[in-house]
Amino acid sequence: VTVSVLYWSSRKALQPRTLRSRRRRGQLASYLASRSMGCGASSNKKDEGKPLPPEETVPKDFPIHAERRLYICWDESCAANHVLMCSPKSADEVVQVCNWAADNKWKVRATGIKHNWSPITVQNVGVEKNLNGYVLVSLMEHMTKVSVKPADGEMPPLATVELGCKQKDFLTALEKAPGGTEGIGYGMVHTPAPDDITIGGILAIDGHGTSIPVKSEEPYLDPKWANYGSYSNCMVACKAIVWDAKDGKYACKEFRREDGDAIAPFLSHVGKALLVEATLQVVPNYYMRCVSRLDIDWETMFPPTPADPMQPQKDSMMEFILKSGRAEAIWFPFTDCPWFKHWEVTGPELPEGSTKVDGMTNYTFADDLGPNLTKFYRSLVGSDNDRHDELVRQIRKDEAERFSGNEGKAEKKNLGTKLAEWFDEVATDVADDAIEIVGGPRATPFVNKCTRLRVCAGLLDTDTDDIWGPSKNTLIYVKSTTLKVTANGYVVMTTLDNVQECMHVFAKMYHELLQKYKEAGKYPIACPLEIRVTGVDKPDPIFGTTRTTYTPPTSALTYDETAEARKWDVALWLDVLSFPGAPNSNDFYVEMEKQLMSHPTFIGEKARIRPEWSKGWGYDAAGPWTSESFRDHTRRGLPRWDEMMAQYAKHDPKELFTNAWMDKFFVKVNGEKATAAA
DSSP characters for 375-403? Predict the structure, then answer.
């Protein structure tokens, strides 16, 4: 998640300690707004780039309507022009496209919102270069239906969804379905934060939110059917496009969890398959409260493990994890107090002090900020001498009264103290009589102070520091207008009593690495560090599974024999955000990955590291996803890797569901190309 920085008008309620500090606050009025995140959706225009040669127009024999379009991934770091794109209306039309591609030796790639960093759709060739030989299949336009079947005896409630459906629409359909919890239907145990990503995309990369099982939830969320691992582990059936050896062509075939291990390669396929529909195990819906805090410094939040790991220190992240099972830290670089959120499952009564929310994405201050604020924040990757005076004047005009009228709130809520304190802290960074608006990496510490201030003021302004409602209304809080940033991503599978040590070691490692680069005059990380925790992909609560082999084999959370033997039943998710191409960011990511991979807290008997498929990982001098040592580590760390590669070869002998980068990564552990399983 990414958030943005403050415009705050100078008001008497902030009680300036001196005339000088009050004057500084007035001077900051527009400058604080300038350091912001937020932007519109990425471009998908069809007429950009170089003209098409005749052989790269839409093929005349293509079976359904198609167009050539520009492909740009979410953070705009991966692009290709004039890629053939189609929107099938049914599974039969998807099959037609795949058989056409097989006959013409083309590749078929599923596409959706493109909220992805890694090159698992198409390889980056740039916006000016055409990419032929690929067809992008989007299910979002037509294949979005959802149906819900209530629980029946031992069978849990099930939702069948076409995989072009966006998450916000899926969760809304669950909530409106008859049955389940009175008035609020059904839901998921936890979810990714973005509202508009597709269910197909989530399932492909073992999407997740934050949650581990705790006793305090059981009165409201029955653990019998509750999956605390990835979305992918909820799948009890799917329809996939696979090769039919008897007919010699591709066909749509159903696979069911209860029928055995045949469904395994589709549970978290990372783009090596094309699914059109899935049936997911859901739960009766529940109410949930989410409280934001900005008053816990990072050393208090991530302390060393105490003698008894199950008795953590007050206000440590571990204390909240053990209490409610759900927590997230968003730590802006060069600041001391992260934006900390913790969730609590409750009954149907509004808790005292909470604000009832009737919809999703309630942190509007983080998402809807417009192009002017975005442009200034992006100046961090520009020249130190770039000036932005006119832009700041525009921002001042746009934001003049955005956060006025919060005096009473600041006095009544504990955030008010921090707001005044941080306002004064930022004020000291600006000259008394003039503000020189200069961008570039050296502004990073100041920008992040403003970002933290923006969050504090935004929570007050919108009354969202303590919100409550049906589960989706607090789980989903990121819109497509959020700033497009890049991120690395790792999953640490470990034991519950080692989680706090993992967080402590990583937080210290991150802080020291930032300071090291700062002392060298470098600011590679402009955006927050995010930390979440989930359970793992245990098959026990999922209908139709009885053996460890039924855990999703290519999921980062796969609960294999090693995990079971070492009681690795918790996963820590670590993401460090910055801008694509930020100066020195790749060096930072390389160094961080090496430290992670060599630290005894994260390897051996204590834990293991896996990539978060959709993010950045495998860094070397050439960038992410290029380190052969990390790629080898990943393949060897998934015990059924070779078996799954053989299954993909069996189901896709014409090699439709791949691309140039995937051809290098999805090979056997020994580096050889996989052959079809018997």
Answer: HHHHGGGS-TT-B-HHHHHHHHHHHTTTT
Residue 426, token pair as written in the block: 């930022």
Helix, strand or coil, per DSSP, at residue 58: coil
Instruction: Please give the structure tokens belonging to residue 439.
Output: 């961008």
How do beta strands 607-611 and 146-149 pair? unpaired
The secondary structure of residue 498, as a DSSP letter, is G
Of the candidates 489, 531, 491, 501, the one whose C-alpha atom is nearest the C-alpha of residue 606 is: 501
Tell me the pLDDT of the chain averaged across its residues.
85
Q: How many CA atoms lie within 13 A of 84 on its CB side?
A: 22
Q: 514 with 525: CB under 8 angstroms?
A: yes
Residues 6+ apart with CB under 8 A from 314: none
Report the Cα–Cα distance between both ends of the chain, in Å, rounded: 44
**C-alpha distances out from residue 610 to 176, 367, 540, 619, 672, Å:** 37, 30, 22, 13, 22
What are the two backbone dihedrals, phi and then psi, of residue 332, each rounded to the nearest 5 degrees? -75, 130
Number of Cβ within a 10 Å radius of residue 594: 15
CB-CB contact of 102 with 114 (8 Å): no
**How is residue 280 written in tokens?**
């997911």
Task: Place 34 in a pLDDT band, splitting at 50, 70 and 90.
Answer: very low
Nearest C-alpha neighbor of 198 from the set 110, 280, 113, 74? 113
Integer angstrom CA distances of residue 380 from 135, 192, 228, 442, 524: 36, 28, 38, 8, 10
Task: Give the closest residue to 323 by CA, choosing from 533, 469, 473.
Answer: 533
Residues 355-398: tens digit of each pLDDT: 999 999 999 988 865 555 566 666 777 665 566 556 555 544 44
Instruction: Name the residue among 482, 451, 457, 456 with its Cα closest to residue 368.
Output: 482
The pLDDT of residue 432 is 34
What is the Cα–Cα distance from 173 to 279, expressed in whole angstroms? 14
Pair 127, 49: CB distance under 8 Å: yes
Tens of pLDDT, residues 423-476 = 566 555 543 333 344 567 877 887 787 778 778 878 888 899 999 999 999 999
- DSSP label at residue 156: P
Phi-psi region of 180 (alpha: psi -120 to 50; beta: other; left: phi over 0): left
* Contact (Cβ atoms closer than 8 angstroms) between residue 206 and residue 232: yes
